[in-house]
């Protein structure tokens, strides 16, 4: 099957945008025609060789679209179904799915990105995160596809598999934020801003947004932050302590990525507080932490992959929060782009000109 895609053939370079030949779908696979795909930090990190990607590769870690072809072994989908394609699969059969932790599904751990297509010159093309959303068509496993109601527009629905799942899961499921608690959010990009909204929904008393970018801090206030800290001009740890009677925040959500942000997140949580680490910098980044923070201070320091969500049960909840307007997606999609504009999307994302650019192949 022919498709047209934006293919990264060389790191930190312009994309090849043109035809490629999609592989023959396996019995457990679907072909989905892409209608919208977000471009977030995961994607520019892939572009910058920070994510062990292997060009030629189609980036784009999640998307919404319409099912075009259903493999012979796939049940529950038909051509014409509107779906969200998520980067994290849920096979329902492995050890981790069995213990209720599909965020660690063994299918996710099986190594490198699969080859899904060939270029006109014969080179194999991989799909980043088994998705490869910056393409008119995606060849994906049925276990990473979820049905979608018609209520949400494409540009909004495509955020479900991106910051929405990670941030809501970080606040509700992992951070277990309780009404009245103080929540500090380190980094106010796409992920951090969703975390601010989630903390507001959870009834947090004080929501402290931390970022060096004044526009992002302003946005955080419009979404429910009660206080902001300029990480460029002041020590965020001291600032958070000052706002929490010297103790530190009850829950800290780290949504920035650099090692220094991870360290600050741990330091600004109160004793016996909860730290949720959701940001990732380079795949090889290491973090130094004072041992006392990890032991005597009794902090709960928890990792966060895809918000630890169970897509089959959590996705419908998140959809209803967007439908009812309790979550406001309007500030997130700053611009939509055609596939041919992908080089512009990368540049604007790196310059922090977009919260989220959405490609509509
Ligand atoms: Zn599994
Ligand atoms: Zn994302």
From TrEMBL:
Source domain of life: Bacteria
InterPro entries in the cross-refs: ADH-like_C, ADH-like_N, ER, GroES-like_sf, NAD(P)-bd_dom_sf, Zn_alcohol_dh
Segments forming domain Enoyl reductase (ER): 12-359
Keyword field: Metal-binding, Oxidoreductase, Zinc
Cofactor(s) listed in the protein's UniProt record: Zn(2+)
Molecular function, one GO term: oxidoreductase activity
Entries under Pfam families matching the protein: ADH_N, ADH_zinc_N
Entry protein name: Zinc-binding dehydrogenase
């Amino acid at each position: 099957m022919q498709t047209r895609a934006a293919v990264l053939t060389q790191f930190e370079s312009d994309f090849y945008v043109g035809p490629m030949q999609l592989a023959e779908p396996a019995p457990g696979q679907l072909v989905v025609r892409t209608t919208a795909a977000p471009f977030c930090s995961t994607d520019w990190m892939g572009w910058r060789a920070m994510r062990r990607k292997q060009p030629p590769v189609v980036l784009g870690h999640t998307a919404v679209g319409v099912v075009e072809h259903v493999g012979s072994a796939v049940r529950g989908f038909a051509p014409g179904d509107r779906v969200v394609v998520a980067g994290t699969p849920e096979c329902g059969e492995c050890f981790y799915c069995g213990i209720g932790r599909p965020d660690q599904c063994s299918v996710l751990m099986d190594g490198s990105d699969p080859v899904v297509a060939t270029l006109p010159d014969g080179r194999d093309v991989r799909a980043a995160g088994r998705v490869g959303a910056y393409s008119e068509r995606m060849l994906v496993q049925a276990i990473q596809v979820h049905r979608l109601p018609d209520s949400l527009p494409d540009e909004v629905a495509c955020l479900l598999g991106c910051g929405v799942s990670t941030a809501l899961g970080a606040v509700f499921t992992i951070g277990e934020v309780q009404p009245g608690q103080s929540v500090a959010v380190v980094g106010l990009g796409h992920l951090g801003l969703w975390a601010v909204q989630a903390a507001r929904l959870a009834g947090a008393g004080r929501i402290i947004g931390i970022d060096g970018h004044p526009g992002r801090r302003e946005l955080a206030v419009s979404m429910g932050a009660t206080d902001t800290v300029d990480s460029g001009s002041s020590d965020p740890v001291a600032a958070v302590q000052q706002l929490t009677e010297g103790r530190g925040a009850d829950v800290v959500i780290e949504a920035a990525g650099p090692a220094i942000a991870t360290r600050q997140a741990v330091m600004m949580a109160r004793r016996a507080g909860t730290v949720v680490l959701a940001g990732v910098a380079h795949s090889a980044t290491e973090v130094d932490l004072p041992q006392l923070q990890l032991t005597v201070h009794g902090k709960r320091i928890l990792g966060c992959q895809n918000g630890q969500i169970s897509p089959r049960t959590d996705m419908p909840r998140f959809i209803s929060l967007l439908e009812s307007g309790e979550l406001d997606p309007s500030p997130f999609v700053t611009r939509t782009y055609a596939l041919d504009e992908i080089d512009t999307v990368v540049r604007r994302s790196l310059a922090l000109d977009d919260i989220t650019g959405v490609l509509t192949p």
